[in-house]
Amino acid sequence: MALTGLSIFKLLPKTNCGECGVPTCMAFAMKLAAKSVELAACPYASDEAKKTVGAASKPPIRLVKIGPPDAEIAIGNETVMFRHEKTFVHQTAYAVAFSDDEPLSELSHHIAEAREYCLERVGEKLRVDLVLIDNVTEDVQPFTTLVKTVAGATGRGIILRSTEAEPLEGALKILAGQRPLIHAATPANVETFAALALKYNASLVARADSLDQLAALTTKLMSLGVKDIVLDLPSDNPAAALQYNTVIRKAALKASFEPLGYPIINFVTGRDAASMVADAATLVCKYASVLVIDRLDFETLLPLMMLRQNIFTDPQKPIQVEPKVYALGDAGRDSPVLATTNFSLTYFLVSGEIENSGVGAHLVIVETEGMSVLTAWAAGKFSGAKIAAAVKASGLANQLATRRLIIPGYVAQISGELEESLPGWEIRVGPSEVADLGPYLKRLAS
Ligand code: SF4
């Protein structure tokens, strides 16, 4: 039977020392009950706690870290089958692949692209996370040269794909301290590759042709002392990959089947861009922890970056911006003041329209717990009184020659309340749709 936070708390030292990374033993107990941390994080856990809580609190899907400390990617540690049950924890890491049979002169442009690619959306910078280097030549020198070049040029975590131990070891020496991921241990090479992973502190992909073989392989790796494992069950079509991923996730979460309790790596290759995006999108939703894409171009990455951001935001915590006044464009003493909520998407859409309009403005962001305009208004968090309080607290009244406040058209009904709460201010009702804001501001300024 699953342990509750309270029953776990009774077994902890209750000193609230914080060494486990959370401030109190109770908070740590709640995380243990949710299986999002391991008891090993508490250095003072008693033998009784270890015996009772240890196995019960172990995350069903192991947390695996890849990459150098300043670009570390964490995968796994998931606890639910569906995002709406709670949240997905660690987003799918996107990797692009380069192979060592291509001349460096031709790859240098793509390596620079992998480093430079950055899409900024609702305040987050979305990038390529990992680079896979494929030892197609099976030789040491071209592989190690490419590994050195890519690691130095991109700073990203590296996935080393090779069937040969010698090139692999050469590359692992170059990546000392950078925690690469080795692809892949198979039933044929398991001892050799396990020894390399342990010697160089690398994570290791386990690759087998069936679920039974994969479970046997990870069991063998565990017995050899390898803990950080990533699963690869090859498939020849996306439907099969989706099925395998689902079976693996279900076995780990619902049956606590330890041999499959690891993150999954999938590969998307070949076909046209639209099919690649469709296949990749399926696997981001179901349940790829690492997705290797053999194509690095904007039209492929853009939808995948946006999808990943949407899937892996916590549905219980709307993304928010800091409630304060943002001076946008050439905001001055006669610029209008606009008010909206601190829901990130709302902020970035409104601020983007203001900046694109070329009309300077002061944007007052009201604390609404990340709700959008109509939701916040319905919940009483974007009322006339709340907006008036935010405007007063901003101190804008003393800085402006013209006191003009524009509110979203969706909450036109609070304009009267605002006029009473903000004497000396002209209250205007702006457009309901953000797309109409730019033309509205231009008209106002003309
Ligand atoms: Fe409590 Fe252990 Fe965490 Fe200290 S490290 S706060 S004793 S759970």
Describe this structure in words.
The chain contains 17 helices and 17 strands. The protein has helices at residues 5-9, 25-33, 47-57, 104-116, 140-154, 165-174, 190-199, 211-223, 238-254, 273-285, 298-311, 344-357, 373-378, 384-394, 396-399, 415-421, 437-445; strands at residues 64-66, 73-75, 93-99, 119-121, 124-126, 130-134, 157-161, 181-185, 203-207, 229-232, 265-268, 290-293, 325-328, 337-341, 361-366, 404-407, 426-429. It has an eight-stranded parallel sheet with strand order 10-9-8-7-6-3-12-11, with helices on one face. Helix 10 (273-285) runs parallel beside helix 11. Residues 12-13, 15-20, 24-25, 28, 42, 44 line the site of iron/sulfur cluster.
Short description:
Helices cover 41% and strands 17% of the residues.
- Sketch the major β-sheet: 8 strands, parallel
**Structural class of the secondary elements?**
alpha/beta
Specify the number of helices. 17
Taken from the alpha-carbon principal axes, the silhouette is globular
Radius of gyration (CA) equals 26 Å
Number of strands: 17
Give the fraction of residues assigned to helices: 40-55%
Strand residue percentage: 15-25%
Strand order of the largest sheet: 10-9-8-7-6-3-12-11
Low-confidence stretches: none
Distance between the termini: 69 Å
- What is the average per-residue confidence, as pLDDT, rounded to a whole number? 93
Say which molecules are bound, naming each kind only once. iron/sulfur cluster
